[in-house]
Amino acid sequence: MFSPGTKKSNFTSRKDRTVPTHSPPGNASPATPLTENRKPVTENSIPERPTTGTPAPWAPRLSVRARIPTVKSDKVDDVDPTQPVYVGEVPQVVRDEQANMLQKRLSGDTSISGGMDKGTSLAWIIYGSKLFVWSYRSPAASRKCIVLKLPSSILEDGDINKTSGSAWLLCVLDWDHNTLGTNKILQRRTSVGVLLCNKKTRALVYCPDIYSSPPSLTCQSDSITTVNKQQRISYNSLIASAIPDKKCFCIALACSSNGQLCKFICSPTGIQCHEAITVSSQGSQLTGSKGYLRSMVWHAPYNSVEESKRRFLLLTDHEIQCFSVGLVPDFSLSKIWSHEIVGNDGDVGIQKGLAGQKKNWPLDMQVDNNRKVMTVLVATFCKDRATSSSYIEYSLLTMQYKSGIDVSSESSCRLHDKILEKRSPIEVIISKARVEDEDFLFSMRLKVGGKPSGSSIVLSGDGTATVTRFWRNTSQLYKFDLPYDAGKVLDASILPSDDGEDGAWAVLTEKAGVWAIPEKAVLLGGVEPPERSLSRKGSSKEESTNVSFAGNIAPRRASSEAWDSGDRQRAVFTGIAHRTAQDEESEALLAQFFHEFLQSGDVNGTLNKLQNSGAFERDGETNVFARVSKSIVDTLAKHWTTTRGAEILALSVVSTQLLDKQQKHKNFLQFLALSKCHEELSARQRKSLLIIMEHGEKLAAMIQLRELQNLIRQQTSTGVAFTNSNSQSDLSGSIWDLIQLVGEKARQNTVLLLDRDNAEVFYSKVSELEEVFHCLERKLSLIISEAMPFTFQLQRACELSSMCVALLNTSMNYKDENHIWYPSPEGITPWYCQTVVRSGMWTLASFMLHLLTEMDQLIISSKLEFHSQLELLVKVLLEAYSGAIRAKVEREEEHGGLLAEYWNRRDTLLDSLYQQVKRFNQGSSEVVEEQNKEIAHKLSSNLLAIAKRHEGYQTLWNLCFDHNDLELLRSLMHDSMGPKGGFSNFVFKQMYNNKQFSKLMRLGEEFPEELAIFLKEHPDLLWLHEISLHQSSSASETLHSLALSDGDSSISEVVDPTSYEAKTEPTLADRRRLLNLSKIAAVAGKNADYDIKLKRIEADLRILKLQQEILKLVPEDEETQELAQKLLSPADLIQLCLNIQDKQLALYAFDVFAWTSLSFLRSNTSLLEECWKNAANQDDWETINQTTVAKGLTDEETLEALKETALYQASRRCYGPESETYEGGFEQVLLLRQESLEVSMGGSSVEGILMQHRSFPDADKLMVTAIMLGNVATDDILEDGPSPME
C-alpha cells in the first residue's frame, strides 16, 4: 500500500543516507508502521490483515462510526484539502446487519458486495440475503434505506475468491429521468428499478420499483447452458436500459467469461432470455482464455424516449467492439464495428510480442462524458531478462474516434477498417508491480471522469481505490485507504458539481460510509508510481525488508524527574504546577503500558485503565502523556561520556542517541494511536497533544542541527575561529559557542546535571529548544564580538542564520509530513512562532543588517553568501510572525500591536535586502557588468517572492520601478489583491504621489474597477477615468462637484503632506473650465435628466461669472486678493454686495438669488428682504419727490426718472416679464404688492418692506410706482396701454 507523498528536506535526505544499518526500519513516517510490528497487537483479530496498514491517529481502533464527526464545519478553511472528506454514513439498518453478520460469521471473510450509481446518487450493499439501497447525498434525517430480501435459491456464491471483488452486478433503472430535468440529482425520485445478477450462479433478480410497497421481485436462474462448475463460467459485466413506452420494462445485456453475450427482457411478470450469441473475431484468443468477454458500457446515455436503438461497447481480449441493440419489440442485436487494440501494430493500441512481454490483459473499459474517448485498463505480464524476475505493468490506453468519421451513422462506420486511434501515448500507472493471479486482475475496475480533469480511479478486488493522473509525462497516484477496520472500498463514483461538470471522486467503504477525495488531495498528495501493486499487498522487495523491531528496544523506563527536580522559573517556559500522587501514579502506569507495548505490542484495556487513573484530567505540560513524551526526548544517555571537552561531538554517539530517541518517540505515537489514547487527547487535550507533537518537531530539528554542525565542520578549513580556548579548532564556531551557553544555563538550573558536559546537556534537553533563541536574544554579543575580524563576524552570523533556518524548516516539514497526528490547528501557536523564537531571530537579523552596511570592500562571492543567508533568515522570521498573527486572529485576541510590529520589521528587512540588491546593480570591480546584472536579477527574483508572500508592497514597487518593468507590475497587481485594495491600491498611491498621472490612467484600462475605487478620493482624475470608461454622465457629476469644491481634493493634495509644496486652490477660471467640461460631458452622456443637469450647470456658471463681476467692483485690499482665489457661496456673495454701498452691487445680489434654488430662496427670505431695503437706500426718494412736484413733471417724465432707480431695476430683474431664474420665481417666496398679500395665507411683500423705509410717507406713490413699473416693463413700455401712474 502507498499513501500520499511527503517532501523531505535536503538534510533529511542526507540523514537517511547516514543512518546506521542497525537502526530500526520503518522510520519514514509514524503514520505507516510495518505490519509485523503490529502483529502482537492485532494477531487473529482480523484475518488476512494486509502487509501494510495505517494505524494513524485519525483511525483508532474504535468502531469507524464512533470517530466520524457528526457535525460538519461551515468554514471552508477548517477542512484539510489533502485529506478525504467525509460525505455520509451508511444507514443504521445497514450497521445493524453488519453487526449480525459479524456475530454469525466463522473464520474468514464474508463476501460483501456494494456499489454506487452516478446518475441517481444511490448506493447499495448486499449483506447475506439482503439488499440495502439508499441515497448517499440525501440529508441524514431524511435518508431512507430500502431493504430487499433476496431469494435463497440464487444466493450460492460457490468458491468465489475473497480477492475477486464483488459477487454481484447491479444496474439501476431510473424511470423518472425524463421528467426531473437537469437538476434531477437534487430531486427525490419516486420510481427506480434495480436489476441484479449473481456472477457465479448467473441468476438474475429484477425489482421493477424499489419504492413500491411492498417491492416485488422476479428471478431467472441460468438456463442457457448446463454450467459445469469446474469451468467456473461467470458473468463479468451487466448493462440495462429502459424500453420506451413500456412502464418498468427493460432490456439487459450480460457478457460471460466463456465469450457469450446474453440478452434479457425484464418485466414485472418475469425475466426472459431472448438471445445468446458467442462473440468471436479473427485473431481472438477467447478459446481457452479465461475471463473474456470482459466489460460492457453504453456508448451514449439514454436521453430520449423516442430512441429506437442504443449502442454499447464491448471489451474482448484484444478488441473493442461496438454493437447496436433495438429497443422496439424485435430487440435485434447487430455488430457495427470492431477495432483491434492488442496486436502487431503498436500505432492502433498495444503492440504484443515485445521483448520481455509475455501476456496482455485488457481488464476494464470506460467512456468519458462526451462519449468520444475510451479508456482501457491494461495489465501486462513481463519478465526481466537480466534478473529473470517477473512483474506486472499496469497502464491506461486511451482511444478516440478518427477524424472524418460520422460516428452517428452506422453505414459510415462500417466503411472504415480502423475506427479508432490513440488519443495519447500509453499511460503507465505502475511499471513494475508484483505478480498477481488472474482472479485478482479480473477483479479490477476502472472509473473515469472525476476531478482533477483527466484522472481515473482503479478499484481492486481486495478493497483499495487508487486515483491516477497523468502529469508531466508520468503518472501521479493517490491511494485512498482508510484503516483496515473501515473495511474495503466497495465502489467509486463521481459527485456532481455546481457547474454541471463532474466533481470530486467519491468512494463507498464497507464500514466507514461514503468519502470524497478532493481535487487538491490528488494534486498535492499524488506520488510517483512505486514498485508496488495496486492491491493492499506490498511488493516482494518490501516484504523481504519487513523486520520486527519492537523487541529490540530495551525495557527501560525513561523518566524526567531528574530534569524537574531542580527546575527554576524561566522566561521561556511556564512554571510546572504542583503534581499530586494521582499524577505520579498515572504517569507510572502509562510508562508501564508503553514498556509492555514495546515488548509485546499489546494495548488491550489500556485506554480504560488510563481513564480510570485520571490520566486525561490535566492539560498542557502537566498532562502525563506530555510528560512521558518529554521524558523520551529529554533522556540523558547513561553511556555518554561525562568528560568535559569537545570530543563528545567528534563521535557518532550523539547522532545515534538522537535517532534512537526519534524512533522511540515514533513508537510512542503508535502506542497512542493503537490504544485509542490519541483520539481522546485530540478531543479533550489539544494542548497536550500539541506538546507531544512538538517534541517530535524539536527532536527532528535537533538531529538536523547536529548534521548541520557536522557539515560546517567538514567545510571548515584549518583556520581557527574565535571561541573558547578549551575548544578544539575543528569544532570551533558560533554554533558550538551557542551550544555551550545554552547547555551551561541548563546545567546551572538542574543540580543533578552539574557533572555533565554542556554539549551533552544541550543535546539531551530537546524539549527546551526555545532556549537557543532566548540565548540569541540575550547573549549574541558573547558569540559574535565586535573585536573579532569582520570576516569572522560574517562567518559566525551566517552559521547562526543557517542554524535558525534549519531548525524552523525542519519543524515545519515535520508538521507537514505528520499533519494527521496533530490536533485541529485553530487558535494554536506553534512553538516556532512564539515570542521568544521571533525575538531571537530578529536580534540576529538586526545584527546582520548592521553588517550589511560594512560589506562594500568584500569580494562578490562573500557578499552573495551573506545575502543568501540573510534572505533565508528573513523568510523564516516572517513566516513565524504570520503564524503568530494567524493564531491570534483565530482566537479572536487583540493583535494590533503584533501586526504593527510585523509590518515594521518586515519593511525594515525587505528594504535592507532591496538596498543590497540595488548595490549589485551598480556594478563592482570584481566582475563585469553583465555578470553583475545576472546576479542582481536572481537576487531580485528571490526578494520578489518574499515580498509578494508577505505583502511588502514598497519593496515590490521599488523592484518594478527601478527596472521600469510595467509588465511585472501589472502581474503583481493581478496576483496581490489584498485588503484595502491590495498592491494595486498601493501602486495607484505611489503614481499619484509621484505625479505619474499618465501611467496611472493607463493602468485604469487594465484595472478599471480598482482605479475607480481609488480615485473616489481624487476627483481631479476620476472624471478622466470615467470618460475613458465612457461613463459621461458620471464624469459630468464628478466635474460639477469638483468645480464647486473647496479645493480639498485638488491635484496637489497628497496623502503625505511633506511630499510637495503647500496646496493651491483652483482659480475661478479653472472652475469655469471644469463647469464647461461638465456641461459637455452631460450632453455626451445625455441620460434621462440631462436637461435638468444642464440647467444647474448653467446656473452655476452664471453665479461664477457674477462673482468675477462683483469682485471687480470691490475695493482692492488684502482681503479682496484672498477672496479672488476662493469660491464664495451664494450667501457670502450676497452679503458682500450688501456690505458695500453700490447700486450695481445691490442689483448683483438679486442676480445671485435668481440663479440659486427655490429652497435657497425660502431659507434666506430675511436676506432677500435686506436686499430690497438696500436697493431702496440706493436712491434719494425725498429729492426725487421734490423734483417731481417742483418741476411739475408729466407722467411720462416721471416714469423716465423712475427707470433710473434701483427699485425699478430690481423689480424688473425679479418680477418683470423678461426675468430669468433657475428654479421657480421670486413671487413664490416674496410677493410684490401688499394688497395681494391680504388674500394670501400671510407673509411679507416688497411693498410691505418699502413701507418701513424712512422716505415712504413722502414718496410712497413714487416707490410703489417704481416696483410696479418694473413688473410690467418691456423695451416698448408705455407705447400702448395705461400708465402705471394711473
Structure overview:
The protein is an alpha+beta fold. The chain has 42 helices and 31 strands. Strands 20, 21, 22, 23 and 24 form a five-stranded antiparallel β-sheet that branches. It has a four-stranded antiparallel β-sheet with strand order 1-31-30-29. The protein has a four-stranded antiparallel β-sheet with strand order 2-3-4-5, covered by helices on one side. Strand 25 and strand 26 (456-459) form a beta hairpin. The longest helix is centred in the C-terminal third of the chain and has 31 residues, at 860-890. The chain is extended, with a radius of gyration of 45 Å. The chain starts with 9 loop residues before the first helix and ends in a 14-residue tail after the last helix.
Question: Characteristics of this structure?
Answer:
1286 residues; alpha+beta; 5-stranded antiparallel beta sheet; 4-stranded antiparallel beta sheet; 42 helices; 31 strands; 41% helix; extended; disordered N terminus; disordered C terminus
Give the low-pLDDT segments: 1-79, 178-186, 224-228, 539-577, 641-650, 717-731, 924-928, 1048-1062, 1275-1286
Radius of gyration: 45 Å
Fraction of residues in helices? Answer: 40-55%
- Biggest sheet layout: 5 strands, antiparallel
* Rounded mean pLDDT score: 77
Structural class: alpha+beta
In whole angstroms, the N-to-C terminal distance is 119 Å
- Total DSSP E strands: 31
> Which range does the strand content fall in?
15-25%
Silhouette: extended
What is the count of helical runs? 42
